[in-house]
């Protein structure tokens, strides 16, 4: 029988908090209950927000918690050539296009349409979808702007992508922490519009790097927070386009702050380092998150 493979994949752009502790400990618990593997992946493609100091604090916190993981740890910033190869495929298959509008231009474009009485569509997180303007540019216009060094991001042409793989995309979601039951979740990646899959300077985005790495590392079970559930549709679409195997998913409950809201990396008093300095033990953390 093949071993089940789990992963914990934090981004070193802030301190880990109780929500991360729950996710890491749950992955560890499932790996050990099933005799499976636990991998650690450092998701540091955002070279402006991720720092070596935050990465060092991730290792410190996880070791303190008693998490054990397989070596080597995959650090995404060391694998840009893997993502570039996949991006090149998407470019040559014309499934992505260079999108040149700045944030300000997008805002102004949408405000103008809304002033004229049109409700602009939004993604499940409430972010307005990218206008279809750049998709209509000719190849010559695209090349000219790129040659002029106009900043751009590679966006997925979601309509082209969906017509390539067909509608009716779904994924297998485990229904509870014990992974004993599953259900099928239907998804409509179009709801996210033309998402960014890479940037001019960085040949990937969160979605692309996650699907490439989960496949390369043989991750069979993606166990992560509920806040990432709706993004799974985009990731399933990329898996289909790239012919990558799909994993099963469990999107777990979020650990909430005292105000009932999702924890954030700026929430200092639920940070693991702060708790440790205030005298908490790893057992206290387990108790706090219910593991
Ligand atoms: N790196 C992501 C985060 O820290 C998690 C990605 C994932 O688990 O798919 O939120």
TrEMBL record:
> What Gene Ontology molecular-function terms does this entry list?
ATP binding; glutamate-tRNA ligase activity
Q: What keywords tag this UniProt record?
A: Aminoacyl-tRNA synthetase, ATP-binding, Ligase, Metal-binding, Nucleotide-binding, Protein biosynthesis, Zinc
- Cellular compartments per GO CC: cytosol
Q: The Glutamyl/glutaminyl-tRNA synthetase class Ib catalytic domain covers which part of the protein?
A: 6-266
> What processes in GO biological process is this protein linked to?
glutamyl-tRNA aminoacylation
Pfam families documented for this protein: tRNA-synt_1c
Establish whether keyword Nucleotide-binding is in the entry. Answer: yes
Indicate yes or no for the key word Ligase: yes
Indicate the secretion signal residues: none
What family is this protein classified in?
A: Belongs to the class-I aminoacyl-tRNA synthetase family.
NCBIfam families, per the entry: PRK05710.1-4
Name of the protein in its database record: Glutamyl-Q tRNA(Asp) synthetase
From which organism does this entry originate? Mesorhizobium muleiense
Q: Taxonomically, what lineage is the organism? A: Bacteria, Pseudomonadati, Pseudomonadota, Alphaproteobacteria, Hyphomicrobiales
């Amino acid at each position: 029988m093949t071993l089940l493979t789990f992963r914990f994949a934090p981004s070193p752009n802030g301190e880990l908090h109780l929500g991360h502790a729950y996710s890491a400990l749950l992955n560890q618990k499932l790996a050990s209950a099933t005799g499976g593997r636990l991998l650690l992946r450092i998701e540091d493609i955002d070279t402006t927000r991720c720092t070596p100091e935050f990465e060092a604090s991730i290792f410190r916190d996880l070791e303190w918690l008693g998490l054990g993981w397989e070596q080597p740890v995959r650090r995404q910033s060391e694998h840009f050539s893997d993502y570039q190869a996949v991006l090149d495929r998407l470019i040559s298959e014309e499934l992505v296009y260079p999108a040149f509008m700045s944030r300000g231009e997008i805002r102004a474009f949408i405000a103008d349409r809304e002033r004229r009485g049109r409700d602009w569509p939004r993604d499940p997180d409430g972010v307005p979808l990218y206008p279809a303007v750049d998709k209509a540019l000719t190849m010559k216009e695209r090349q000219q702007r790129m040659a002029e060094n106009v900043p751009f991001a590679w966006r997925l042409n979601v309509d082209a992508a969906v017509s390539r793989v067909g509608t009716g995309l779904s994924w297998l979601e485990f229904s509870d922490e014990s992974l004993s039951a599953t259900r099928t979740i239907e998804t409509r990646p179009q709801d996210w519009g033309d998402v960014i899959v890479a940037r001019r300077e960085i040949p990937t985005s969160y979605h692309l790097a996650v699907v490439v790495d989960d496949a390369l590392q043989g991750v069979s079970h993606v166990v992560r927070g509920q806040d990432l559930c709706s993004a799974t549709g985009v990731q399933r679409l990329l898996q289909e386009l790239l012919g990558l195997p799909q994993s099963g998913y469990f999107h777990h409950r979020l650990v909430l702050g005292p105000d009932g809201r999702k924890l954030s990396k700026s929430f200092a008093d639920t940070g693991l380092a702060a708790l440790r300095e205030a005298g908490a033990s790893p057992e206290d953390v387990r108790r706090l998150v219910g593991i």
